[in-house]
Amino acid sequence: MTWWQAAPTILSALALMFIPGYLIARSCGSRGITAGALASPLTISVIALGAIAADLVGVTWSLWVLIVPVLLLSVGGLTVRLLWRHTHPTAHSARPAAQQHSVQRSIAFGSALALAAVLIGWRLIEIIISPDNVSQTYDAGFHLNALQFISDTGSASSLTLGGLTTNGADPYFYPAAWHGFVSLLTQLTQLTQLTQLTQLTQLTQASIPVAVTASSLVISAVVWPIGCMFLCTRITGNRPIPLLVTGALSAAFGAFPYLMLDFGVLYPNLLSIALLPTSIGLAAMVLRLSADNHEKWAVSLLGFFGTLPGLALAHPSTLMALLALMLPMGAVALVRHWRHLHHTQSKAWRYLPSVASLIVYAVAVYLLWLRLRPGEAASDWKPFQTPAQAFGEVLTSAPQSRPIALMLTILVLAGILHVLQRKGGWWGLSLFVVTGYLFVVATAFPQDDYRALLTGVWYNDSFRLAALLPVTTIVIAVIGGSWLVTTFVSRIQSSATGAHRSGYRASLPAVAALVIAIAVITVGSQGKQMRETVTTAQESYELTEDSDFLSIDERALIERLPGQLPDDAVIAGNPWTGTLYAYALAGIPTLTPHVGSTGGDENLTILNRLHLAGSDPDICQLVETLNSYYVLDFGDTELHLGDHNYPGVEDLAIKPGFRLLDSEGDAALYEVTAC
Fold first, then answer.
1. Interior angle at CA 632, CA 628 and CA 634, nearest 5
2. What is the DSSP pairing of strand 630-633 with strand 667-672?
3. CA-to-CA distance for 10 and 16, rounded, in angstroms?
4. Per-residue pLDDT tens for 473-500?
5. Which of 30, 100, 479, 578 holds its CA 20 to 30 A away from the CA of 77?
6. Distance CA 609, CA 315 (A)
7. How many angstroms separate the Cα of 603 from the Cα of each of 131, 182, 549, 570?
């Protein structure tokens, strides 16, 4: 499949991600960059909450579950605004000139977004290779199969998605915001092919990999840069130079978004971390820390709370990251408030509410920190370096032993120096310190209770914490980059002004200087680290004859399954060899849809004893109960060079009671004839 053929799906993903949330944001009074940044988090919040509500009331998951609440919220928000304007006419006088639409800012925003989208999109196309390729990693099978599970069950609820690995029995919580979004995308891309409204919940199986790729592109190349521009301009102000610097730097980190598409694969974390900058920026506006705070406080507050459901149901660990980052932000806001009270010679008791609020918040975060975390057994990632090494990786934007990002290092150091000199932007620096410290703790501190307390929320996993570093590093880097670029452009402007009387002619050298400066930052940030990131990540998407997880022959055989098996067939096979992809790619359920779990004891019995079906009537009874009369045998090449011995589904060519139905190379499909 070519990328041009995938373009309609990518455009559909873009529309689905931004239009619903943007309608809500604008209807509620948000505007400008704030409305643009709010669009995707609000869309995800409506999808995530709508999926839970629809399942609870027995409504099948479809686009209508998104459309109806979006219309209700938009109409409701617009109605409240109109009523408020009618009852408070003086509150809506003409906006100050500073708040009027700025052509320069719009051009800068559009240029920055285009730059980031092209850079990140280009890298992702290099990594994924073909839009219908699938990630061949540990968690990929689960996430893709979950999309087919949503189609089969008609539910995208986070309360039921865990039922994928339990055959629908005893479902457990699993954050499903990403899955809900992608499942709706598969429906949206088929609307032109549908003839009846009732078909809205039907999926075309081959569309799942393409929908996943399109979603990854939109989240990485559009949602992430917009969030970064929104966050960084909360400190620098909404000016052209910071916007352009942010656009260039949002594509400069190997740790995000690319790492989440390589390691794992962690699609939910990809979405949640891409949404995080917007939530942080809104928190800054609510706490009155923002340098660009033209939104009404009530609108900022509503927007902030509106992003939280999507953030939490994309992945709860990112919500915890937000809560942790708001602690130093709250402290900075508290100090500013105290200074204001001192300046106005307020009485002592007026200091108490703000102190009490911060204490209550800190206690609440601590209690949530203890509860919203995986069990200790799942948090078994071990430290692997010294604190000095970890600190160096944070400072040089080179986590996980990646090559040093020299351009980012220079800009980060410049940003730190600028904050220390100007004594402004402290809350931005505090964000950098918090995420950096968490990474150092996870990778370099002893494996004790203190480490478990602080980073157990992320399984003590250095990869997940490494992906958080760009969220805060970019803030400091943009402060430094904007300072250096502004200084450079100002000097060129001053020289030109001295040489030319015309203000217009004098601005041309300054514009040229700005273009050169942004070009230097862009080219300088796409160096060795980025090349190595692409090369490493490509290995997870390459489809070859000898791929460890899913080979060309195995995929070809899977794609022929729908024409050979009955609709109610269930396939047995060793999931570690890639047989689990049969569910996502062909719509045929497998006994083991995830390598991390074999399901119930009956599944394990099939995997270990199916080859004895001809001599053990109990096995045939189990085959009949599970309706598992078919086996995929993909040999013994496993993911991560694994060696899982499942004799019941291996070497069936020489076992009695099995008939070869189809094969492609060494991949084979068998029917159980012994039962």
1. 155
2. antiparallel
3. 10
4. 999 999 999 999 999 999 988 887 765 4
5. 100
6. 38
7. 33, 29, 21, 11
Contact 587, 149 (CB under 8 A): no
What is d(CA 315, CA 273) in angstroms, rounded to the nearest whole number? Answer: 9
What is the phi/psi pair of residue 609, to 5°? -130, 5
pLDDT digits (tens, 9 = 90+) for 398-424: 999 999 999 999 999 999 999 999 877
Q: Are 218 and 189 in contact (CB under 8 A)?
A: no
Q: How far is CA 613 from the centre of its chain?
A: 45
Please, which residues have CB within 8 angstroms of residue 602's CB and are 6 or more apart in sequence?
Answer: 622, 625, 626
One DSSP character per residue, 586-648 reads H---BS-SBTTB--SHHHHHHHHHGGGTTT-HHHHHHHHHHT--EEEE-TT--GGG-----GG
Q: How many CB atoms lie within 10 A of CB 355?
A: 12
* Distance in angstroms (rounded) separating the CA atoms of residues 466 and 405: 14
Cα torsion 327, 328, 333, 336 to 10°: value is 150
Cα–Cα distances (Å) from 584 to 99, 144, 205, 619, in that order, read 49, 6, 7, 27
The answer to whether 378 touches 459, Cβ cutoff 8 Å, is yes
d(CA 573, CA 583): 12
Phi and psi at residue 516, in whole multiples of 5°? -65, -45
Q: How far is CA 323 from CA 49, 311, 318, 327, in A?
A: 20, 11, 9, 7
Alpha-carbon span 154 to 64, nearest angstrom:
13
| Of residues 331, 375, 299, the one with CA closest to residue 30 | 299
Given this model, what pLDDT does residue 498 score? 62
Angle at 40 between CA 407 and CA 411, to 5 degrees: 10
